[in-house]
Amino acid sequence: MKKTTSPWIALLIVLTAPLLSVIDVFIVNVAIPSVKKGVHATDGQIQLVIAGYLLGYASFLITGGRAGDHFGRKKIFFWGMFSFTLFSCFCGLAQTPIELNITRFFQGISASFMVPQAIAFIQILFTNTKERARAIGWFGITLGIASIIGQVLGGYLSQVHTLFDGWRLIFFINLPIGLLALWAAHHFLPETERHENHVFDYSGIGILTAALFCLIYPLTQGREAGWPLWSIVLIILSFILFAYFIYDQRIKRTKGANPLIDVELFHNKDFSIGLVAVLFQFMMHTSYLLTSAVFLQNGLGISSVDSGLYFFLPGVMFTLSSIIASKLLPNFGKLVPLAGVAAMIFSFASQIVLFKAGVSGITIFILMGVYGLGNGLILPSLLNLALKGVPHKFAGAAAGVYSTFQQTASALGICIIGGIFYNVAHYGNYTKAFEYSTAADIGCLVLTALMLILLPKGKSDGQELHVAE
After folding, report:
1. What is the dihedral of CA 45, 46, 51, 54, to 10 degrees?
2. For labeling, which of 123, 128, 157, 394 is most exposed (least CB within 10 Å)?
3. Are 55 and 108 in contact (CB under 8 A)?
């Protein structure tokens, strides 16, 4: 078995997973008006272009983490990247909203298998507290780079006209990156220890997927249809299924079976509170990406190219503040993300007041930069604070649970806060729609801050984790 001489080389390879998965959120956000026109989609269908991707992502993330434990993280990373690249191309070939949403769903499933391996590799390769903080800092830098690439390319490519519509290029761009990642993984990525005694909880996967679908689908399509009876029934059914899923997981653990989620994970206070913080933070984060991109273009009349450029500074500031956060977190703990929350609340409150017709470009640029600054202090810090006390034997499972909460929260943000935006914008008032949705984002940030305050005090502490020889 070939083994890399440096864990940093392995880190560079696996970071292509969060790079591509985040690019595919940002790049679609800016191009949403062009995609909507290209496939003749309704507002609800276009929300599903994002939410459907996140639904597939969230439904199988825990399975993706467990698959890495069972089959080896290198193998699952490789085939997850292969499938992601393939379905990206299928998205670019879609002719109708249904085709696009189906292929986006499977693209999300592919991401759910490759991304948890990146988080697990960080826990396994870096046992020293400071080195792990640096590695997580690079994880944050990757997210920042992905946001810059996604926003700028999304705006530019959606206006490129060649043999086919430019918006299709936003999916084909994944092909060269995916092929390079596959080659590097095959030659240089080390395999990890396998736990082949694990048995997959197929019924648990089915229950969780059904519960998420029954929640996400009616929140997008039900609003547009005027909340018919079927949408209300599905939402109620989703809560029943979530409750049954928790009951099912507890029973399986009691009987000595292998549940999808090991409830022992939630005995860790840091992890449990961190997950709630993740829920509110990502509801805010992903919904803002959508609503601000649509508002800039449809509300303020800014072109898609210029709209993408307005997200350049937030991406740069996110990257820089992620580096700063990785250095400050071991000494200052939760004070680092709390400072980020304060910066973002200031940015959003200022945007509500100042983002009107005739607002200067420099005002938009600066306030969105402050948003990126605050976000960079929060996201990598949440990952570190939530996972700091998780034993290495739960590395894959914890990564899957964490990422499931993250993507579920993102989908809920698109559906709920995005739904608020589209409901008001339906009457032609994009400014009022942006004000309402941004106020909801501030509410999510306040709840995130509350969860951070409830986290126990203390510096991050690493766990003894190993890579298989």
Report:
1. 120
2. 128
3. yes
DSSP class of 263: G
Cα gap 172→178, rounded to integer Å: 10
Distance of CA 49 to the CA centre of its chain: 14
Three-class DSSP category at 119: helix
Q: Which pLDDT score is estimated for 85?
A: 96
Model confidence over 380-433: pLDDT tens digits? Answer: 788 777 777 676 666 666 766 777 788 788 888 988 998 899 888 877 789 999
| Confidence check: pLDDT of 105 > 50 | yes
Percent of the chain exceeding pLDDT 70 equals 92
Q: Which of 152-156, 344-348, 395-399 has the lowest mean pLDDT?
A: 395-399
Per-residue pLDDT tens digits for 118-144: 878 887 888 777 787 788 778 777 876
* Residue from 258, 297, 290 nearest 396 by CA: 258
Q: Look up residue 35 and give its two tokens.
A: 């995609």
Q: What is the domain partition of the chain in residue ranges?
A: 8-187+260-454, 202-259
3-state secondary structure of 85: helix
The separation between CA 65 and the C-alpha centre of its own chain, rounded to angstroms, equals: 15
Q: How confident is the model at residue 5 (pLDDT cuts 50, 70, 90)?
A: low
Q: What is the pLDDT of residue 341?
A: 95
CA distances from 215 to 76, 99, 314, 318, 347 (A): 28, 21, 31, 31, 31
C-alpha to C-alpha distance for 369 and 292, rounded to whole angstroms: 13
For residue 386, the one-letter residue type is A
Between CA 209 and CA 230 the distance in angstroms is: 18
Distance CA 335, CA 425 (A): 37
Give 134-193 as a DSSP string: HHHHHHHHHHHHHHHHHHHHHHHHTT-BSSSBGGGHHHHTHHHHHHHHHHHHHHHPPP--
DSSP 392-460: GGGHHHHHHHHHHHHHHHHHHIIIIIHHHHHHHHTTT-HHHHHHHHHHHHHHHHHHHHHHHHHSPP---
Q: Which fold has domain 8-187+260-454?
A: Growth Hormone; Chain: A; (1.20.1250)
Q: Cα(43)–Cα(291) distance, rounded to whole angstroms? A: 12
> Which of 26, 47, 34 shows the shortest CA–CA distance to 426?
47
